[in-house]
Amino acid sequence: MNYIANTAPDQQAMLETIGLASVAALFEVVPPSVRFPKLNLPRPLSEMEVLAELEQLADTNADANHFAWFLGAGAYNHFVPSVVSQLQMRSEFYTAYTPYQPEASQGTLQAMFEYQSMVAELTGMDVVNASHYDGATALAEAAIMSLRAAKDDRHQLLIAPGLHPQYQEVLRTYLQGIKADIHLLTETEFLQFDQQLTPKTAALIVQSPNFFGEVIDLNGMAEAVHAVGGLLIVATDPISLGLFKPAGAYGADIVVGEGHSLGNHLNFGGPYLGIFATTQALMRKMPGRLVGQTVDTQERRGFVLTMSTREQHIRRDKATSNICTNQGLIALGAAIYLAAMGKQGLRQVAELCYHKAHYAASEIDKLTGYQVVNRRPFFKEFVVNCHMPAVELVSRLNRQKIMPGYAISRNYPELTHDLLVCVTEMNSKTQIDKLVSALKEVA
User: Fold this and answer.
1) Which of 212, 242, 296, 353 is the most buried (most CB within 10 A)?
2) The whole model's pTM is what?
3) Of 288, 277, 275, which Cα lies nearest the Cα of 254?
4) Structural domains in the chain, sorted by start
């Protein structure tokens, strides 16, 4: 009770209310043998000794700086220019939280406005919100938005194969209690996706590049979905948009993605950044925050939160979203990254990822006991079928300071011998050749 501001009379009054004589009586249900365990703790350590022990424990972590790193599956090791952290960590940005009096936070609002503007251009969409928690959250919100946007009784969501398994899990969690029929298409059904569309289809959800790194041909998808009155939702990798045509150019209605790769380090799993973009026609149904540019009474430029209905704040059952905050600091990092890299810089990063991945794939495919099995063009990830279980292969190469990829059996138990390999601009030719040599040695 040391940290609770209850006086002795307060405690006595509470005990009388529950019919006990003392605080000790609260714990009589706990067996005496374990009620007051004796802790066999080591001697106290000085600050210097604690730091030395923590550093020793930290050194046992497998990280991208000390390994040849080919692990992706949604979290990617990309180069972060120094300018990002130098600006992102300025105290006026780093200590700012969601602005409850937003117009007083002009710097934060302008940063979010610039982020929205650049991501809109990158995705080929009209409007971008001021971010979500992560890509999976953004996708789930997009699915809910598609159900809400339907003018009739539409509740079918068609999911293309290859959608990230964790995105699928978050999607199903979000849609609990909502009338929604989620249908994960087989590869055969997806090849003839137009035959799966019905008047009950609210949206077709496609990821490109997908979980297996494959780039999906989006031609004609939007027209087919729109013909039955549904929406096309595309999840994408923003880095790939430095090289490939954006989903907005194919007529997508909602584009989402994981923006962590834009100027943010791996950080042992987060925080992430949910990108959410849509068309002007759907703007008022969009969840999250939207920053707009305006002028004050003296014609000076200013920034405000705009297009936010009152239900967003006071009528929660009618709100477009009940998310009250966003990943502002991570979105700021993405804005700085995009501004620093520019169009040519982002294209160069995408090209390096593409060419290095294809070099790695071609070299691995030459090895006895390994086969690249991607059926479609791929960007920076590809699947390798191995002569041994992928989990065992990862364990063996870890001993050589190589993280060869992601064992797909973690999500698809039947694919025991398949390894998802990721190559970014951070992987040198020396690292790739080291991976190839290690795989050959194991074989």
Assistant:
1) 353
2) 0.87
3) 277
4) 71-79+346-442 (3.90.1150.10), 82-338 (3.40.640.10)
